[in-house]
Specification:
Layout: H1 20-43, E1 55-61, E2 67-73, E3 76-81, E4 95-99, E5 105-109
Antiparallel strand pairs: 1-2, 2-3, 4-5
Length: 110
C-alpha cells in the first residue's frame, strides 16, 4: 500500500500563508457592499442622485428640528439651512401656500 500512496515528507511541506483567506473575505465584502448600494438605490428610487442631467430637491430635518434643503441641479449640489428668523422688505407676491389637514403644504402660484 505504501507504494501507491505518495505523501510528501514533513521536510517538503509547503508553508501556507495564514492571511491568504483575508483576500477572499475582502472580495466578498466588496461584492456585498455594491449589491447593497444597488438595492438601496432601487428601493428608495434615488437613481436621480447619480444622473448628471437630473434636478433633485431634498428636505432633511435632524433630531433638533432644524431643517435643511438640499438642491442638486446637474452636477452642482447646494445646501440651504432654514432658520426661524422672520424677514421683511419690499417684494412681489408670487402665490399662496396652503397647509392641508394631513400636514402637506401646497403652493399655488398667482
Amino acid at each position: 500500500m505504501g507504494r501507491f500512496l505518495q505523501l510528501p515528507s514533513p521536510a517538503d511541506a509547503e508553508d501556507e500563508d495564514p492571511l491568504s483567506g483575508v483576500a477572499n473575505i475582502f472580495d466578498v465584502s466588496v461584492v456585498f457592499i455594491v449589491g447593497l448600494m444597488i438595492t438601496l438605490f432601487s428601493v428608495y428610487r434615488i437613481g436621480d442622485l447619480v444622473d448628471p442631467d437630473s434636478e433633485v430637491t431634498l428636505v432633511k430635518t435632524n433630531a433638533d428640528g432644524l431643517s435643511e434643503i438640499i438642491v442638486k441641479r446637474g452636477t452642482e449640489i447646494t445646501a440651504y439651512e432654514l432658520t426661524g428668523e422672520t424677514l421683511g422688505g419690499q417684494g412681489e407676491r408670487l402665490g399662496t401656500a396652503y397647509r392641508l389637514a394631513d400636514g402637506q403644504i401646497v403652493y399655488v402660484p398667482d
